Every structure is written in structure tokens, then in C-alpha cells.
Amino acid sequence: MPALYSTGERPLRFARFLSWVSLVLILVTSTAFSFVVANNARKTLLMKQKEYAMLLGENLNSHIYKRFVKPTRLAFGRVELIKPFQYRGLDQVIQTTIHGLQVDYLRIFDHSGTVSYSSRLEEVGMKDLADRTVTRAFEKGEHSFSILSRMSLLRAMFSFDMEPETFILRTTFVLKTMEDRLDEDEQEIIGVMEFAQDITNDYKAAVNFLWLVVGASLASSLTLFVLLVTIIRRAERALNERLLEKERLERDLHQSEKLASMGRMVASIAHEIRNPLGIISSSAELLLRRTGDADPLTGRILQAIFDEAKRLGQTVNDFLDYARPRRPGRDPVDIAAVLRQATGFMEGEFARSQVALHADLQEGLLVAGDKDLLYRAFYNLMANSLQAMQGGTVQDATLTLCTRMTRDGQVEVRIADNGPGFPRQGREKLLDPFYTTRDEGTGLGLAIVNNIITSHEGSMELTDAPEGGAEVRVTLPAA
């Protein structure tokens, strides 16, 4: 049945393909989701930093105007940072305000784009530090932010040892007068402040969060994949078992149909043969009695005709018994009595074959069945053992009979011999009809016995005896 199994492999291959495709999809989607989450976290972090920079700028604007610009204008009429004492006053206000706030540098540009104040003294008076953000701040009065980085974000993701000032947030803030009586749009722009903050540690935290999300996503994806593969493999094993079981059932059904059709044909042929065979057998027996010892040659020929007709008649009966099995009765049957009856009838055979009989029969073991059919089954099993030990090839030939009640309430009959035992090859076919290892025989003996046992809802097992030889274990439900 190769076609059946090959058709079943297609869904299994598809299941394996589906598992690997699902792994790729899970990894791709989880990784993409991780990067999206991490990028959103980075944007949120930058937003928080910008909000903090705005608060810092507003705080500096308030302190510079209220503590320096306004008092200076009242005292001197105008702000002139070129004068050292005014510069020192502004520097003192700024330094006390940004103390401990991790500001990398701070510059203040005047309307001409010149650095009028800087936390780095060497930059005071320089005109080439004002870029377009400073110019736009003077023109439109808008604050702005920009990120200064020494490496790309992709490189930063794989850099676990970023140096300080790798990422800097630069804020351009418009300094205005802060009079309560004026609206924000009416307030005077007194300068543009630019300050920078080192946010490298925050970027490190964002990168660590990214890898944490990626790692957790990959771990969950691999766990899901392992569970999926486990389920698919279990389903594959179950499907394989079902396919094999289906194949076996179809093979058994095909064999049963073939045997049934053969049995019907054999039954019809055997029925037609039995009548003329009976005439041949009875005629040969009659002629043998009349001839007697008068003609020895004719007597031997008639005896051969009678014996072969009798043997052929037994073969025909075997065919009919297998093709048309009799439905067993359900009467209480004493197993020990049946076995003693069979051994009593075979006592002469035991003596001629020089086979010793050891019987350990437990009394009172009853089964519900047909006494005649069970007698025939045990008789055939013992006859097979005798045939296996005939010919003088077995020393101290012994046939052992044993009965007992099993733990699950079954009656077990053990028939063992110390003959050559069952053959290793083809042992699984010994119960099949028409299969035999002997030169003579129809191969129906064990098949008929198995039919009788199974019709009594029992089972039969062919094994090797512990002491050597063959052993047959018949199990029948107790009455």
C-alpha cells in the first residue's frame, strides 16, 4: 500500500513547512515590533528631555531677566557685557542656576549674532558660532532643538560602551523680557541662548531597553515555536499511527475478503467432493474386508486407497470447518474435564511416540462455551506438539499441560513441549490460513483453532517455552 502512505506524507511535509514559516514570521514580526517599541521609547525619552530643556530655558530666562537684566538697566540704563563687572554678575546668575544640572556649555548671542556670553570664555566675541537656528530664533522668536551625535543610531544599537558626549541635545532658546503687564508676543527679545546637555546615558538606557524588548520577544517567539513544533510532531506521530492502522485494517479487510471468497469456493468444491469421496472410502473398506488375506497385493492397494480417502476426507472437513465455522454454544464447560478427555483419547499416541505427559490441572475452572469445539481445539494443539516431537529427535520428550486463573479473572491454559519450537521466521503468519511449515498439511489447523478460541472471546499466543520448545497460551473468559 505505498500510495496510501505517500499521500499521507503531503500534509506532514506541509506541517513542517508551516512550522518553519511560522518561526520566520514570528521572528520578523517580533523583531520589527521590538524596534517600533524601542523607537517609540526613544522618541518619548527625547520628548522628556526637550520638556526638561524648555523648563531649564524658562528658568534661566526668568533668573537672567529678574536678577541681572532688570537690575542692570535700572542701575546703569543698559546692559553692557563688555564691562567685566556686568559680565561677572551675569555669569554668577547663570552658574548658580545651572549648578548640578549637567549642562555641557551655554552661550548667549546678541542681535548681531556675536557671542556676548559663554561658559567657555574663549568663545566670547566670536561671530561664526551662530548658525541658522540662532538667526531663525531672532527672526521668528521660536525655540528649537537638535541632536548632535558622534555615531549613527544603528551603530549605537550595537555599541555597548558609548563614551560621554556621544549624543548631545542642543537647545536654542529665545530670551525675552518677562514683564507681567505684557503678553508673550509683546515681550522684547533680548538675546538668544544656546545650551547643550549630554544625553548619552539616556541613549544607553534606550538601547538597553531595545535589546531587552528584542530578547524578550525572541525568547517568547522561540518558546511559541517550540510549542508549535511539539504539537505538530505529536500530530504527525498520531497521523502516522492512524495511517499505519488504516493501512493494516485495509490489508486485513482485503485479506478477509480474499479468504472469504476463497472459502466460499472451497466450501462448494469440498461439498461436491465429500459425497463421491465417501463412496470411494466405503467401497474400499468393503472390498478390503471381502478380499482379506487371499490376495496380499490387492489388500495393500485397497488399504492405501482407504487410508488416502480417509485423509482426503479429513482435509475436506478442515476446509469446511474453516469456511463455515460453527457458532459456539454458551454452556458451562469444565476445562480440566475437556483436557483429561483429550489426553485420554490420545493416550495411545503418547505411548507410541514415547512422550511423557505432565498435567497440572486446576479443578473448578469453568468457561462459557461449546465443549465439542473446545475439545477439538485442545486436541489439535496437543496433536501438533506430538508431531513436533515424533521421530526420536527429542530426548525425554515431554508435553506439559497447566491451567490457572489469572488476576483479571481469565482462565489460562498452557500447552508446552520441549520440541524444536516455533520457527523464528514467519512466526507471525502461523495463525494465517493455508500457511504451513510442513511438507504435508493444509495450513488450516492453527487457523481453525484460533477461530474457535476467538469465537469464545478468548485469545491465543504462540511463544517459546522457558525450558525450550514451543508454548501455546490460551486465555478464555471465566464463566
From TrEMBL:
Annotated transmembrane regions: 20-41, 209-232
Sections of the chain in a coiled coil: 232-259
E.C. number: 2.7.13.3
Source organism of the structure: Oleidesulfovibrio alaskensis (strain ATCC BAA-1058 / DSM 17464 / G20)
Reaction catalysed by this enzyme: ATP + protein L-histidine = ADP + protein N-phospho-L-histidine
Lineage: superkingdom: Bacteria
Annotated protein name in UniProt: histidine kinase
InterPro entries recorded: HATPase_C_sf, HATPase_dom, His_kinase_dom, HisK_dim/P_dom, HisK_dim/P_sf, Sig_transdc_His_kin-like_C
Keywords: ATP-binding, Coiled coil, Kinase, Membrane, Nucleotide-binding, Phosphoprotein, Transferase, Transmembrane, Transmembrane helix, Two-component regulatory system
SUPFAM superfamilies for this protein: ATPase domain of HSP90 chaperone/DNA topoisomerase II/histidine kinase, Homodimeric domain of signal transducing histidine kinase
The protein's enzyme class: transferase
SMART domains referenced in this protein's UniProt entry, alphabetically: HATPase_c (SM00387), HisKA (SM00388)
GO molecular function: ATP binding; phosphorelay sensor kinase activity
Stretches assigned to the Histidine kinase domain: 268-479
